[in-house]
Amino acid sequence: MIVVTSRLLQTNCTIVRGGVSADVQEPEDATPSGETFVVDSPILPDELALLPSLLEQARLPQPGGLLATHADWDHLLARIPFPDATLGCAESSAVRLQAEPGGAQRELRAFDERLYLVRERPLQLGAVQALPVPGTCGIGDAQLELYPAEGHTGDGMAIWVPWAQVLVAGDYLSSVEIPTVSAREGIDSYLATLERLRPLVARAAHVVPGHGPVLDGARALAVLAEDAAYLQALLERGSAAELPHGRRSRAQRVLHAANVAAR
Ligand SMILES: [Zn+2]
């Protein structure tokens, strides 16, 4: 697995190779075996453009598929460097994309205009493959496990990579960003998602959040506890809820105010 962290928003893109046994040494000139998936995406045009050669240098096959943990625009950009790869997402995300045609593209355009970013190619999502969640997704001869992860948005999934003991959490368990919810019922489903992820986090070697540093299992459990305590306080005390330690900057307080308004 390789994690690429964007210089903007510390957005993580996770590259997973499955279906290849670790102890087989491949000759230098052999075609790389197994199958590669790219989960979520970095944001900047140069970071996206470098992904194909990064895979080549790491001797990984070009991606057989792309996965998005949820349908927020900043997680959908891998279609730009890999326009022919199928994009898979949770059924809930596919429904959301269908309900808001062009929505991700509009938000990307607004973001790019604000930062004067120029892209060579527009984002075209094409046909999206809806994956049943909970469920599994084949990669080579191995399986990724998919778990519902809702609350940050009304859609989404977390991905467990059994052979690496890695949880790709989507926009949960970030040590740089407080939990953000879009609606009142979001707080309850966010808390339910944290409880659903807890046993996976407890046996994870690493957790890759949507934004921020990759965490070891123990640190991720601590973030999980802080996030659950914050959300509980948000339910009970609204704006008086104390923000998690280390996530109390002015920008985090703006996110907190939005959570209070949603509540
Ligand atoms: Zn995000």
Q: What attributes does this structure have?
A:
263 residues, alpha/beta, Metallo-beta-lactamase, Chain A, 6-stranded mixed beta sheet, 12 strands, globular
Describe the structure.
Helix content is 33%, strand content 22%. A hairpin with a 2-residue loop joins β7 and β8 (142-148). With 263 residues, it is α/β, with parallel strands linked by helices. A six-stranded mixed sheet has the order 1-2-3-4-5-6. It has a six-stranded mixed sheet with strand order 7-8-9-10-11-12. The longest helix has 21 residues, at 217-237. The protein has a single domain (2-262), classed as Metallo-beta-lactamase, Chain A, CATH 3.60.15.10. Bound molecules: zinc ion. The site of zinc ion (ZN) has 6 residues, from loops.
Percent in strands? 15-25%
Overall mean pLDDT: 94
| Name of the CATH superfamily | Ribonuclease Z/Hydroxyacylglutathione hydrolase-like
Strand segment count: 12
CATH class type = Alpha Beta
Outline the secondary-structure elements.
Layout: E1 2-5, E2 12-18, E3 35-39, H1 45-57, E4 65-68, E5 86-90, H2 91-99, H3 103-115, E6 128-131, E7 135-139, E8 142-148, E9 157-161, E10 166-170, H4 184-202, E11 206-209, E12 215-216, H5 217-237, H6 250-262
Parallel strand pairs: 3-4, 4-5, 5-6, 10-11
Antiparallel strand pairs: 1-2, 2-3, 7-8, 8-9, 9-10, 11-12
Brief summary:
The chain is built from 6 helices and 12 strands. By secondary structure, the protein is α/β, with parallel strands linked by helices.
